Amino acid sequence: MSFDRIAPLYNIGENVFFGNQLNLARTVFISEFAKCRSVLLLGEGRGRFLQELLAINRKCSVTIVDSSSSMVRYQKSKISTSDFDRVYFNCVSIESFSTNKKFDLICSFFFWDCFTARQIDKLVASYSTLLLKNGLWINSDFIDSVNFKNYIPFIKIRLLYLLFHLTTEIRAWRVEPFKKFAQENSLRSLKFHETNKNFIYTELYQKII
Q1: Separation of alpha carbons 126 and 124, rounded Å
Q2: Whole-prediction pTM value?
Q3: What's the rounded Cα separation, in Å, for the pair 98 and 92?
Q4: 155 sits in which H/E element
Q5: How far apart are CA 78 and CA 93, in angstroms?
């Protein structure tokens, strides 16, 4: 699975399909970012959120795991020279990344929709061990359900999956609810927000063990 082919058009596609809604979802709990010192970003697209995070929090170190070398190049282009020494890029698959470092914030924004339930089950179990006790995990994604009163979001998600299968070879065909995997790995729900009702949401968890 690689997003290299769609990296040049990624932001255009996001804006055409969703306007500013995805970025609003990423930053809805923005006050939580200022308190953290070690942040892990699982996938980061072209670096839009990274740029905002570094501006909000002048003391945090950021570790990025992203399998797309093209996306990583865009991310690096967003960073000022003064911030470069506190961002660590890991251009590897999420399955092969390893570290001895612990984090007080993990962010997964519109990330798990690329994985099957079996993959997510293993990966959340693995990555939750990297989160410090009382550390936070912020997750944003789509609500993938048929709603005949508002069927346009469902169609958008199906079109996205069709595009991803043609360009990235992902295995998933639907967005799995993150809550189940979080609860199974000692992550307690603190806040929930819908940027677009019944379509786009963000949830904040805290590790309790």
Answers
A1: 5
A2: 0.93
A3: 10
A4: helix 152-167
A5: 22
CATH code, 92: 3.40.50.150
Sort residue 43 into left (φ over 0), alpha (ψ -120 to 50) or beta: left
- In a domain? residue 87: yes
> Tens digits of per-residue pLDDT, 106-162?
999 999 999 999 999 999 999 999 999 999 999 999 999 877 667 888 888 989 899
**Residue 165 pLDDT grade (very low, low, confident, very high; cuts 50, 70, 90):** confident
Task: Work out how many domains the chain is built from and give that number.
Answer: 1
Residues contacting 77, CB < 8 A, separation 6+: 47
- Note whether residue 2 is domain-resident: no
φ/ψ of residue 64, rounded to 5: -115, 135
Given a cut of 80, whether residue 1 has pLDDT beyond it is no
Residue 125: which domain range?
Answer: 7-207
